Amino acid sequence: MEMTNVLLLIVPGLVGAYVFLFGFLRKLNELLYVKRLGNKQYDLPPGDMGWPFVGKMLSFSKSLKSRDPDSFISSFASRYGAVGIYKTFMHGAPSIIVCSSETCRRVLADEENFKMSYPVMIRRLGGSKTFHSMSNSEHKYYRRLTAAVINGSDTLSMYIRHIEDVMIESLDEWSSEDQPVEFATKMKKPAFKVILPIFCGSEADSMVERLIYLFDEIKKGLRFPRINFPGFKFHRSVQAKEELTEILMEALSSLRSAAGNIASGVGRSLMDILLTSKDEDGLPLSDYAIHDLVYMYLSAGFESTTTATMLTLFFLHENPDMLEKAKEEQVQILKKRDSTQTGFGFHEIKQMEYLSKVIDEMLRFMGGYLFREAKSDVTINGYLVPKGWKVLVWLRAVHMNPDNYEEPKEFNPSRWENPKRKGGTFIPFGAGSRFCPGSDLAKLEICIFLHHFLLNYKLERINPGSPIIYTPGPLPADKFLVRFKKA
Fold first, then answer.
1. Which of 31, 62, 109, 347 has its CA 20 to 30 A from that of 153?
2. Which domain of life is it from (predicted)?
């Protein structure tokens, strides 16, 4: 009897303590970041600040594992209405999510009030002179400085033979292997072999495998707590970044010692150009500034091209009618080719009308989100974006919005035949002056790879039922395990 009375006293107390603690923890981010704004808090968009420290990252991860990444944003819309802008807490900071074409376009175009500002881990493993961490004025200066290497038909035309050699060699190698290959992994090597001489002036195959490994180790650390202590993922990423820095610095030192032999004019590598360039104050660029810029281009150049090539091939293989249509287009291009022409011609890119639609549709599926930060208090659609808060520009929400695309989850290149859409509904490379500078080079690589694949090879998918997972971009769970064969 006494024990029963004790339990009757203890249990309600424990339940009450649990409810209090649960409610307090759920409101802690509100107290720390929202209440401190005073009366301004009432102008914030609706939303959920989530749990202390992690915010809504657990919910975001859960949506990716559910294989429905769009459920994360749709949960905000179902709770707070389709207003296209919400408050939350992600990547360790109070944040505003913008996810309609109007709000995304506003943020990306407004460089006066918004700046790039990536999470601490990305900045720690990147550098101080990457486009992610530069002010708008610095970005414009260094973008102009580096654009000559990867922009313009004359420049890109110079890379065609090199890209063809790399892609043909890779396809031949894969088709001769007895074992299936993980295409999402294998494609990294040719993608890296293409850009290494363009950005570093080196074609050493011996460097490629090690550099890919180091970049992969660095990327892994971005998904774990920033604990720089032996045994932790982030520590291994820091070590990989230090080794990568040593390799790039050695390459830079070799170039600097041979400065008198550096070529001038068109055809120089990015590292060559930066060695003979000045900063905004007219001073020579430091080795660390050159390292950061080259590192940024290498990282973005092979990761994005690898993923885009893999997804394009994946969608074509999963849609045989589209594959045949793309193949027939390449056959017709071959028939039109002048008998004196050897190899791929830059002008043939424009003849790939259907393949271009396939690539655009693939890019629509790729979209993740971009990072910005409010430089001052800004009002968007009647809601306050406080100074210092992060802004997450949710590209995928725009690309998967049924108001922008009919049946958005269906892969349908024909939707691009007569596109009549509002501005800001297709933004895979961002917008404004921060538009991805390497998009044309990436498309050239994809087109050359697919040109030779469609004409001369076919593939067999080993696990046809392997589902798509999100990281946050789409990826077959088996990393697109396939067997290449000569046609």
1. 109
2. Eukaryota
Q: Does any domain span residue 333?
A: yes
What lies within 8 Å, CB to CB, of 51 at 6+ separation is 25, 26, 28, 29, 58
CA 243 – CA 249 distance, rounded (Å):
10
Rounded distance between C-alpha atoms, residue 93 and residue 308, angstroms: 30
Which domain does 356 fall in, by range? 91-486
Instruction: Look at the chain and count its residues.
Output: 487
What is d(CA 465, CA 478) in angstroms, rounded to the nearest whole number? 10
pLDDT tens digit string along 48-101? 999 888 889 889 888 888 878 899 999 999 999 999 999 999 988 999 999 999
Q: What are the pLDDT digits (tens) for 469-478?
A: 887 778 899 9
Residue 38 CB neighbour total at 10 angstroms? 7
Full DSSP string of 295-360: HHHHHHHHHHHHHHHHHHHHHHHH-HHHHHHHHHHHHHHHHHS-TT--S--GGGGGG-HHHHHHHH
pTM listed for this prediction: 0.88
The structural domain count of the chain equals: 1
For residue 70, which phi and psi values (nearest 5 degrees)? -75, -15
DSSP class of residue 284 equals B
Q: Which amino acid is at 210?
A: R
DSSP characters over 4-61: HHHHHHHHHHHHHHHHHHHHHHHHHHIIIIIGGGGGGGGGSPSB---BTTTBTHHHHH
State which H helix or E strand residue 183 sits in: helix 183-186
Q: Token digits for 148?
A: 């000559």
pLDDT the model gives residue 401? 93
Backbone angles phi, psi at 384, to 5 degrees: -85, 135
What number of other Cβ atoms are within 10 A of residue 170's Cβ? Answer: 20
CA 380, distance to chain mean position in Å, is 26
Q: Kindly report whether the peptide bond that precedes residue 472 is cis, defined as omega within 30 degrees of 0.
A: yes
Question: Is 478 in contact with 182 (CB distance < 8 Å)?
Answer: yes
> Would residue 347 count as lying in a domain?
yes
Instruction: Say if 297 falls within a structural domain.
Output: yes
DSSP element (H, E) containing 362: helix 353-366
Domain at 477, CATH number: 1.10.630.10
In a domain, 68, yes or no: no
Predicted local confidence at residue 266, as pLDDT: 47
